[in-house]
Specification:
By secondary structure, the chain is mainly α. It is built from 3 helices and no strands.
Amino acid sequence: MSERRNFNERAQFYQFGTAARAIDAAPDYVQNPGRRINREPIAIEEPSTHRKVDIFSIGVIVFTFLAVMFVGIIYLNLNFQSTYLSKNVIKLQREVVELEKSNDALAEQMEDGVNLKKIYKKATKLGMKPIRKSNIVTYTKKKSAEIRCYGEIPEM
């Protein structure tokens, strides 16, 4: 005998467990020779019925659509106003900062421009006289919380 076994000899060996080949694994096409498999799709026609239009459902849909559009328009308007106001606030803040800078600069110019000698010369030219000792009035204050008023205090 040859060392190689042919197919029939190998088929006679017994196999244990799940490795064994199933006897009826392949479908038997020989038993049903007249069976024909049709693979074309079949179109099923539905009976024609006239459906009525539900006016209430259409009204609810239209109302919902209009409500959503109305709320959307209001939202966009409020968003636009908010953006406009925030930009306006930023613009006004910049203006305030610029005005503060210009006020500080003008205050510095005024302080630098104050010359006491020039002020004294202008005041004496206009008729102001220097202080004399006779113009100074002194008084002594008693320690009391009482204030006496000898005349009426003029209202402003």
